Amino acid sequence: MPSRQRAVPRAALSSTLLAAGLALTAPALAEPSAKPLARPPAKPIASPESATTLSEISVSGDASGTGRPSGTGETAGSLTVPSVAAQRAAVNATVGSVAFVDATTFQNRYANTVRDVLKDVPGVFVQERYGQEMRLSIRGSGIARGFHVRGIELLQDGIPLNLADGSGDFYQIDPLSLRSFEVYKGGNALTFGATTLGGAVNFVTPTAYTALAPNILRIDGGTFNTIREHFQVSRISGPADVLISGTATNSNGFRDHETQRTRNLNANFGYRLAPGVETRFYLGFYDTDQKLPGSLSLLDALNNPRLANPAAIAGNQSRKVTTERIANRTSFELEVGRLDIDSWAIHKNLYHPIFQVIDQDGWTYGVAPRWAGTFDLGGFRNDLILGLRAFAGINEARQFVNVAGLRGAQTLDARQSASNYEAYAENRFWFLPEMALMTGAKLFSSNRTYSNRGGLPASPAARFANITYEGVNPKLGLLWQPLPDIQVFADVTRSRDVPDFSDLAQTNTLGTTFVPLAAQRAWTYEAGSRGRIDRLAWDVTLYRAELRDALINFTPNPGLNIPAATFNAPRTRHQGVEAALTLDLTEDLTGHGDRLSLTQIWTHNDFRFVGDPVFGNNRIAGVPVDVLRTVLGYRHPSGFYFAPALDWVPQGAFADHANTLKVPGYALLGLQTGIDFSNGVSLFVDARNLTDERYISDIAVVTNAATVAGGPAAFFPGNGRSVFGGVRASF
Questions:
Q1: SS3 of residue 456 by DSSP
Q2: What angle do CA 662, 663, 668 make, to 5 degrees?
Q3: Which of 455 and 284 is assigned the larger pLDDT?
Q4: Residue ranges under compositional bias (Polar residues) (predicted)?
C-alpha cells in the first residue's frame, strides 16, 4: 500500500480521535459569558434563489384543529428541525460557497428527479440519463462517472444517506417530500464532517411545524404516459408531532425500454421529552423499478433518440432497488449551544441485470454527535462546531450471467466491508464586528475490506484485500460582512476522496478484481461574494483545485453497460466560476403589485490533466465548459405566474480523455406557468424542450474514441418535447 495512505499509524489515530472527542465536548459545559458579544447575529443573506422564492403560506391560529402553532410568515420549527428562516441563516453564515433553496421554488414544476430541484444552483452539474439515473458533479467531483455518486455526500435532514463506502444513490430522494435543501460546495461541507472535493447536499424534509399546510394532495402527469400521485399529512398534539408523505410515479419514459415505477414513503415523529430536549425519528421506504435503454452511437442518439440499445433489450437491463431507512436525532439545548446526537441504519437491496446480473444486499449504520454554540471569547463572538462520526456497513455483492434479465451461472460471491471514524471542528472568530476568521480540520480513518469468495480472478491478491486511508483535512477562511445583506469570503480547504467499492472492485479481463487505488487529494482555493443591493441579488464564486491522484473514470464498453473503470491520474486541475444573478426588472408593472425578474445562472468548468504521461494537458471528458440557464419570471398578486427559461450549452463536452470527439452544444426552451388560488388550490403547467431539440444529455466517457471502430456507443439522448401539468390542494 502506498505510504502516503498510512501517514498516521492506525492505532495512534484511533487514540487521537478518542482524545479529540473528549476534548471537543468541554466547551459545551462552560458557563455562559455575561459580556455582550462583539458581533450581533448576522441577518440572513438574500441569495438569488431566495430572491425569486414564492411567498410562503402563513399559518395563524388553529382553525384547522390540527394543533399547529399560531404565527405569521414562516412556521416556527422545533429544536430538532429549526424554521426555514433559521436554516437559511445557518447556511449563509458559512465562510465559503453555499446555496439554500426553499421547496416553494420548485413545487410548481414536474419535479421528478434531483436535477429538477438542483438545476438553478450555480456550480452544480446534474444531467439525466434516463428516468432517475443521472450524473451529479460539483467542481468535477466524480467527473466522467455516470452512476451513483462519488465525491459528494448526500444527507437527509443532516443525516447521511450515502453507503459506508461513500457511494450514494438518488432513488430515495423524493422532490415532493422536501421542504428545502442546502448545497455546501467543497470543503464548506465541513459543518457536517464532509471534506470531499464536491462537498455535500442536505435534503431537508418538512415536519409538522415547518410543513406548508397540514394536508397536501397532488396529482400530475403528462407526456410519456406519466402519472404521479402525492399526499402529505401532518399533526401536532401537545409535545408530539407527526408527518407522513408518499409519492407514486409511473412513466413509460421518452425512449424504448425506459418504463419507470417508483413508490416512496417518508415519515417523521417528534416528541419533546423535556424543556430543551427533543427527539425525532425518521422512517423511509423507497422502491424503484427502472428499465434501462442503454447508450447509443452519436449518430443514433441525435437522429433516432427513442431507440434502446439492442443489448439492453436482449438482457432486459433494469435497476430494481428497495431501500428502508430509520434514523433518529435527539437534540439537547444546553446553557451554551446545542448538542445533536444522530443515529441511522439503512438497508438496501439491488437487483441490476446489465452486462451481468448484479445482485447486492447490504446494511449501513452509524452514530454522529455534534455540538454547535456561540460564546464570548475575550470579548469577541466565537461560533464553534464540534463533531464525531462513526459509521460502517457490509454489502454482499453477487453477480450472475445475465439470461434475459434472470440469474444464470454465478460469477462472483464477494463481501464488501467499510468502516469510518471521524472527528471534526469548525470555528468562526469575529475579531472585528464585520470580519470573522474561520479555521477547521477533520481527522479520519477509513477502512475498506474486500473478500471475493467466488469467481476466478488471476491471483489471490485480487481476491482478498484490506486497505486503510487516514489523514487530516484542514480549512482556513475569512468572511467580511460590511453590510447585513452583503458577504465577501475567501478560503482554502484540503479534501480527501476515498475510493468506493465501485472504484476498488473493477470488472476486467480477469473477472472482478480488487484494484488498490490511492485516495484523491486536493487543495481548493475559492473567493466570492453573495448578497443583495436594492433590486440586484448575486452569488458569485471563483475557485481552483489542485488535485493529486485524481480518481478518473472511463467506460471499457459502454454499449454493454459495463461499469466504468477507475485510475489515479497523477495531477489534474479543476477551476471555474459559479455565478447567479437576479435582477428585479420592474415592480407594479400593471399597477396591481406584480413583479418581473430576470435570473442568469452560469457555471464555467475548466477541468484538465496536468502533464499527464498519456493525456498531456487535455480536458477531462464528460462535462461541458459552460452551462448557462436564463429564467424570466413574472408573478401577479392574484397568484398567476409564468417563467420562460432557456438552458444553453454553447459547446458540448468531450466524449473521450484523448479529446478526439466532442458532442454538439444545444439550447432548450421551456415554460412554467400556473395559478395559486387563495383557497389553497394550485394549477400548474411545466413544458420542456419546446423546440424538440435533439441533443446529448450525458456521456459514458471512454479513453480514446478514435480507436473504436464505428465510434463508441457511449451517448445518452436528452428527452424530446414534453408537457406536464398538475393540481395541488393545500388545506
A1: coil
A2: 145
A3: 284
A4: 49-78
Cell of 460: 489471490
Find out whether 38 and 374 touch, Cβ atoms under 8 Å: no
For the residues 37-54, what does the mean pLDDT come to?
Answer: 39
3-730: CATH number: 2.40.170.20
DSSP string covering 233-294: EEEEETTEEEEEEEEEEEE--SSTT--EEEEEEEEEEEEEEETTEEEEEEEEEEEEEEE---
Q: Phi and psi at residue 11, in whole multiples of 5°?
A: -65, -40
DSSP secondary structure code for residue 408 in this structure = E
Query: How far, in Å, CA of 398 to CA of 408, rounded?
Result: 12
pLDDT at 10 (0 to 100): 40
Q: How far is CA 185 from the centre of its chain?
A: 10
By CB atoms closer than 10 A (0-12, 13-18, 19+), residue 590 is exposed
Count CB atoms within 10 A of the CB of residue 565.
17
Q: Note the pLDDT of residue 664.
A: 97
Q: In terms of Cα–Cα distance, which of 303, 302, 411 is closest to 354?
A: 411
- What's the rounded Cα separation, in Å, for the pair 525 and 577? 12
d(CA 10, CA 12): 5
pLDDT at 55 over 50: no
Q: What is the DSSP letter of 30?
A: S
Given the C-alpha cell 464505428, which residue does it identify?
Answer: 710
The residues that bridge with 619 in the sheet, in sequence order, are: 608
Q: Which three cell numbers stand for residue 84?
A: 426555514
The answer to whether 322 and 349 have CB atoms below 8 angstroms apart is: yes
How is residue 638 written as a grid cell? 392574484
Predicted confidence band of residue 455 (pLDDT cuts 50, 70, 90):
low
The residue among 625, 627, 528, 620 whose CA lies nearest residue 573 is 620
pLDDT over 70 at 510, yes or no? no
3-state DSSP call for residue 726? strand
Residues 619, 622, 623, 629, CA torsion sign:
positive
Q: Which of 402, 498, 405, 488 is nearest to 448 (CA)?
A: 498
Mean pLDDT, rounded, for 476-498: 96
Q: Across residues 157-183, what is the average pLDDT? A: 93
Which whole-number Å values give the CA distances from 157 to 105, 232, 374, 477, 500, in the listed order? 19, 17, 22, 26, 23
Q: Residue 394, SS3?
A: strand
Strands (E), 509-594: 511-514, 520-533, 536-554, 565-587
Contacts of 450 (CB under 8 A, 6+ apart): 414, 415, 416, 417, 464, 465, 466, 501, 504, 505, 514
